[in-house]
Amino acid sequence: MSGLTQFAEQTQFLRWFRSGLKRKKLKLSGKLEKDEISTRLTALLKTFQTDEFSEETILEETEVVRKQVYERKKA
Question: How many angstroms separate the CA atoms of 20 and 13, rounded?
Fold first, then answer.
């Protein structure tokens, strides 16, 4: 897609968006926000994906940290 075509489509979308009802705008904005969050979380998961640790190891370490936090709060 050429830059000019993309710009024209963006301009057309903005005109449509500005002319829409407030409720529709809010709904669309919410969907776009969820999509962006999903995209970012997926990228983050890919960044930290590893085969070095098993789920069992992660759960054990999580439990150790929870116990430490609990003991600190108790003290």
Answer: 11
